[in-house]
Amino acid sequence: MQWQYLSDLINDANRVIIGQAIEHFYLTDGLKQTFGEADILIFPKTTQEVCAIMQFANTHQINVTSRGAGSNLVGSTIPNHGIILDLSLMNNIIELDKETFTVTVQPGVLLIDLQQFVEKQGLFYPPDPGEKRSTIGGNISTNAGGMRAVKYGVTRDYVQALEVVLPNGTLLKIGSKNIKDNTGLSLKNLFIGSEGTLGVITQCTLKVIAKPKASETLILGFDSIEKAIANITTILQTLTPTALEFVERKVAQWGEQYSGVTFPLPQAKAYLIVMLDGMDHDDITKQRQNLLAVLGKVDYVIPQTAEETQQIWAVRGSLVRAVEAVSQQDPIDIVVPINRIADFIAYTKQLEQQTQVRMLAFGHAGDGNIHLCILRDNLDDKEWSRKLKMVHDGLYQKCLEFGGLPSAEHGIGTAKVAYFNDAIPLENRQIMEQIKQLFDPKNILNNRVYRQMINP
Ligand SMILES: Cc1cc2nc3c(=O)[nH]c(=O)nc-3n(C[C@H](O)[C@H](O)[C@H](O)COP(=O)(O)OP(=O)(O)OC[C@H]3O[C@@H](n4cnc5c(N)ncnc54)[C@H](O)[C@@H]3O)c2cc1C
Predict the structure, then answer these.
(1) Which residue, 365, 363, 368, 361, is CA-closest to 335?
(2) Could you give the dihedral angle defined by the CA atoms of residues 131, 135, 137 and 139, in that order, rounded to the nearest 10 degrees?
(3) pTM
(4) Per-residue pLDDT at 21
(5) How are beta strands 102-105 and 200-207 bridged, if at all?
(6) Cβ atoms within 10 A of the Cβ of 445, count?
(7) How many CB atoms lie within 10 A of CB 446?
């Protein structure tokens, strides 16, 4: 039988699951709305195993879908038959090098475990996407962003070196612990954000920095979303906050109901949540004073304890799950230049009226990344597809008009192919196609992701 070779290779029945025995969890993504099919699910533990699996798959032209925690929201881990390569057991922290400020890990290490590990050593890994139980391999493959991107950047900014297994089983070692590197083309940057289409990451060396000694959160209340958003530029002209999020009151209420935590300033119609960090308490006080001076008269609350602060961020972090507890939703991850956020939000209100489809907006105000949950409510399948297309067409077209892009951080996957085509010129997509062919001439790796996008 075809799979005997792989079973013998791994030689551990718990790490090779065949056919019907594969749980549904592994056939989908973080939304769990669409499911694929797979013949075999393998949990490799070593790079050598990954090399051998890829070599076998390439020789026999078998599709492979790599997977971390499966929390992506764009269908990129929905398998297209063949092999699911689940990297979650490759989860060792290999080395913390305090002298070069780097940490080397296997790809299945969870973000939360890495963050806690380095913080215990007085260090800090800034990328902070909302799903803390996502894996570092998944974060690199999606160039994950998150709330702290406004000050610290995204995952790409912290990747120093990678080990990657190519579709034919060849192992590439890319990058180094050096801070600066202008030695040849940056292969490393090709893999970051490529959604698993070019190779399988089996080891990653990440940059860490000194942990900020103090931080503080302010919740600013406004009587309209327009007024809240009008202050974003003022804030960014004054300082660089660690995080700068906007949430409408009606959205915060969903979070309150879901998490059981009461949000302050209940009379406000919209909030900006600002996180500051710095070297010490005086540094934070100075930043806060500067901020409040430029904002003028504004309602604000500063949580007094670590627990209260954590609860505020828990409400913000629970918004997607809070929405999903009430209705199926389709997540949007649009980015617009920060001077167009207000216009874009105004457009969503107009579209909501036109289509009678509810949309909840919140997001990373500091970098123009707007998350919208489009609610299905009680629409039947036919009406949901019709209206969702209408809403998508409107949103993605408007985002392009404003100079924006269809994805800030979630990626294209299988879900946003059509809108990617509209956003990226044909010549660029043709070069991407050539790159894919160079790395994966038999087109076996994550071959649903990007395909229609590249072949218009
Ligand atoms: C509640 C919630 C909140 C979220 N918030 C954010 C957010 O704030 N910011 C953000 O950017 N994203 C966010 N996400 C999306 C998601 O968590 C990220 O995309 C995350 O980086 C995916 O990591 P993962 O381990 O789950 O990867 P998976 O979903 O398993 O995989 C994602 C992609 O990476 C590929 N891949 C995974 N591991 C490897 C590997 N070792 N080698 C090669 N390819 C690999 C897969 O093939 C797939 O294409 C959120 C998701 C949820 C459910």
Answers:
(1) 368
(2) 10
(3) 0.96
(4) 97
(5) antiparallel
(6) 27
(7) 32
Q: Would you give the end-to-end CA distance of the chain in angstroms?
A: 37
For residue 446, the ligand 1 atom closest to its alpha carbon is 47
DSSP 23: -
Question: Is residue 456 pLDDT above 90, yes or no?
Answer: no
| Cβ contacts of 376-385, under 8 Å, gap ≥ 24 | 376/327, 376/328, 376/329, 376/330, 377/327
Q: How many CB atoms lie within 10 A of CB 28?
A: 17
- 164-215 residue pLDDT tens: 999 999 999 999 999 999 999 999 999 999 999 999 999 999 999 999 999 9
Burial of 262: CB neighbours in 10 Å, binned 0-12, 13-18, 19+:
exposed
Ligand 1 neighbour 136 (Cβ under 6 A): no
Question: What's CA 434's distance to the chain center, in Å?
Answer: 26
With a 6 Å cutoff on the Cβ, whether 409 touches ligand 1 is: yes
Hey, whose CA ends up nearest to atom 20 of ligand 1?
139
Per-residue burial over 317-331, b if 16 or more Cβ lie within 10 Å, else e, is bbbbebbbeeebbbb
